[in-house]
Amino acid sequence: MRLVVPMVAALALALASAPAAQASHLKESPKKHRIVYHLNEAGVEKAKAVLGNIRNHVKGVGGWDSIEALELVVHGAALKSFLRSGMDPEVKRALETLQTEGMAFGACGNTLKGLRITLVDVAEGARELPQGGVVRVMELQEQGYAYVKP
Predict the structure, then answer these.
(1) What value, to the nearest 5°, has the Cα angle with vertex 47 and ends 42 and 82?
(2) Hey, what domains does the chain have and what are their CATH numbers?
């Protein structure tokens, strides 16, 4: 028992003198985030939700100054929500705003081929991912990007 009391006191002293941990998104401890958002679920509502998540994510980490890179990778049935022909006005507006602010938008090359369309058919600013959307997601994860799939 005599050893326990001094050990507890030493531990308490060490913890009290340690600097407080801070969230990495706080201005006092800035961190440049690298994020990949992965979207492969169909539907305009899903596209709106993901674009809203991205907007909220950017705001939540303190704005674009806290982001080194952010990429939305779209493949499969989800790509249909990003076709120029018949694109929902809200999706178009949100996508354009995020791209203007700094978000990259990648369209799966395999999906483009499967739908028999080209990049010209996809929303402006899209970049074709010839290696495929899933491969791009993997590449970004290997580079240390945080993976988000809402």
Answers:
(1) 80
(2) 23-148 (3.40.1260.10)
Instruction: Give one DSSP letter per residue of 8-75, joined into a string.
Output: HHHHHHHHHHSPPP--TTSTTS---EEEEEEE----HHHHHHHHHHHHHHHHHTTSGGGEEEEEEEE-
Token pair 């290997």: residue: 142
Q: What pLDDT digit, counting tens, does each position of 106-124 carry? A: 999 999 999 999 999 999 9
Beta bridge partners of 35: 70, 146
- pLDDT, one tens digit per residue, over 65-101 is 999 999 999 999 999 999 999 999 999 999 999 999 9
Please list, residue by residue across 15-46, b when 16 or more beta carbons sit within 10 angstroms of its beta carbon and e when fewer do. eeeeeeeeeeeeeeeeeebebbbbbbbeeeeb
Return the SS3 of 51.
Answer: helix
pTM of the model: 0.81
